[in-house]
Amino acid sequence: MMLRDFELQIPLGRITGLRSEGEGTRVIALHGWLDNAASFVPLAPYLAGVQLVAPDLPGHGASAHLAPGAEYTSGVAVNAVLDIADALGWETFSLLGHSMGAGIASLVAASVPERVQRLVVIEALGGLAETVERTADRWREAIAAARALPGKKLRVFADLASPVRARMQANQLSEAAARLLVERGVRAVDDGYVWSSDPRLTLPTPQRLSEPQLARLVAGIACPTTVVYADPPQAYFPEPLRTQRAQLLPDGRLHVIAGIHHLHMEDPAAVADMIGDFLRG
Question: Is the pTM of this model over 0.70?
Fold first, then answer.
């Protein structure tokens, strides 16, 4: 299954992305933090019978950045996904998400259960929690980072080799996978290339849900759900927490396979074996 570029307009602005040709189960695929739609290029050929739409989420890839003064929040992300579905003319659809995209997909499924038919989450479920004790510290850190951001300059890369190496080192990616993300995630400037993602995406959020709140949210996901985790787990989503989250799903199934965080890019055949028939229903 080949993917082609698409573009559409939502109230937030222009959304770009990649989508498959033809008919099939309607699936919106949501990429991870500072990734883009190319995250699903390796997986797409293994998902026959799926009509895959992978947008560059707001602030990522070539999609619109938020207006000056606006903040990237979970609510903004959920509404953007629903606006994308509306622009496609899809009243109902399934969701496939990786990492941050899996967290957003979880929120969408819990928020509009009448619209989401099936849910696949890879390497996240529900989102990252915060303790009540760190409330003031988190607000101080977030506001300080936001106030300092205007004084920072974008790093300029002379060629694509440097950002490819940076992504390989940051995420343990192969060169081929890193290049897919980088080529869609940079823009040309006079002296080379800069990341195209909105710098505000790097800011810490001042407000996170608590673990009990996230547990109630996951328990509110009504649709059939498949969870795929890599082994070893990420430090910010350790065991037994991630398995406990999956066990809260009313209609869930859990798969754990050896791999890195971007396992859907590095081992797409194995991931497709776990989710393909499920997505096709």
Answer: yes
